[in-house]
């Protein structure tokens, strides 16, 4: 099960081109993220480092592999300037900012509604 608290979309994105969704990601998330492979994303870590790069892979634990990375505050983290590829453990992810043009929000919202309905029926 994907931990819901680790990744969500903020209600006000610092990047205007990224979508803003008002619901947490769910178990549909890994397959959703897999549709974004080869798109540029920004991953904000819990230690406040933001890394922009090309999404190469993601798994059910939200472990993420990025290629061609760029640290957004390179002056603050100069030791990361020579790094070109990273593997990010899902438990350290705070936010994943996605390119708005690559996200089918209707599909994502429908999947979230279906999962919420399934969980509600299990709770009864």
Walk me through what this model shows.
With 124 residues, this protein is of the alpha+beta class. The protein has two helices and five strands. It has a five-stranded antiparallel beta sheet. The protein is elongated.
Q: Could you say which overall geometry the principal axes of the C-alpha atoms support?
A: elongated
- In total, the number of strands is 5
**What's the main sheet like?**
5 strands, antiparallel
- β-strand percent reads 25-35%
Number of H- or I-type helical stretches: 2
- In N-to-C order, the SSE pattern is HEEEEEH
Average pLDDT over all residues: 77
Poorly predicted regions are 1-26
Which descriptors would you attach to this protein?
124 residues, alpha+beta, 2 helices
């Amino acid at each position: 099960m994907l931990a819901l608290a680790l990744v969500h979309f903020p209600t006000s994105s610092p990047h205007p081109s990224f979508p803003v969704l008002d619901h947490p990601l769910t178990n549909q998330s890994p397959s959703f993220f897999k549709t974004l492979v080869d798109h540029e994303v920004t991953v904000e870590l819990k230690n406040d480092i933001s890394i922009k790069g090309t999404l190469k892979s993601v798994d059910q634990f939200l472990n993420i592999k990025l290629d061609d990375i760029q640290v957004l505050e390179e002056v603050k983290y100069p030791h990361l300037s020579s790094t070109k590829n990273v593997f990010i453990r899902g438990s350290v992810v705070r936010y994943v900012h996605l390119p708005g043009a690559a996200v089918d929000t209707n599909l994502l919202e429908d999947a979230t509604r279906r999962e919420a309905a399934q969980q509600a029926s299990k709770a009864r």
